[in-house]
Model the fold of this input.
Amino acid sequence: MKISETKVLIPETGGNKLNGVLRKPEGSGLFPSVLFVPGFGSTLHEWKGSFDEIAGRLNEIGILTLQFEFSIFKSDGSQRELPLVVRAQQFTDVVRWLTAYPNVDTKRIGLVAQSYGAPTVLSADLTLMKSIFLSCGVYDIDTSIRRVFKERGVEINLDGDTTLPRSSGEWTTAGKDFWPSLAAFDPVARVVQLTQPVLMVHGDQATKISTREAQNFFALIPSKRKKLKIFIGGDHGFIDVPRSMREEYLKEVVDWFTQTL
Done:
């Protein structure tokens, strides 16, 4: 199937324009679509191009995809992460843009949220989403993000900036407004909106987010159609895993949206 790829700029409430990539199958639509929401400090491609690979598999079965990145990347090469509430607003702006796109079937929109992307979307209104996939989501967000900084030997400065060295060799800075936003996130209060089909996938080797955390959140989801798959030996994002496991992960995603969009 022929796929067209278009770089887009998506206006958001704060005045920025968010970088995005829209991939559309051949034809005039209307197409089911899937929107991708990256994690902490991540580009629209996610770690090692994970989102590109998933999107490609979905394009092959006739699904339009939109990847975007939050306004965290600065012109000087630095990265400044956003408070959760700001991320949620930018996500809402992207959803608004996608639903206005002429080739999109607004009644068949799916969502992929990775890691910090999960509490991001949970902090927003998900009414327009028909199907949701949460990959290695962080639900006890305040504890988990603090653990990431602690494991890297970084002391959090609640009165100013805190800079985290990343495994990619880059750096991500969080300002003093970042931490209260995490502490205010209540997963129990936000989970009640998940009445549409929800797939959760988690790896038991994702040390920053325990399997128990994922299981506890899954138990609270009110949707009548929900699934939790724990991959034994899976890491955070299913990146540095055997190819067979990665393929199984990709199949879960494709099968899920085939069945629920």
In short: The first helix runs from residue 50 to 60.
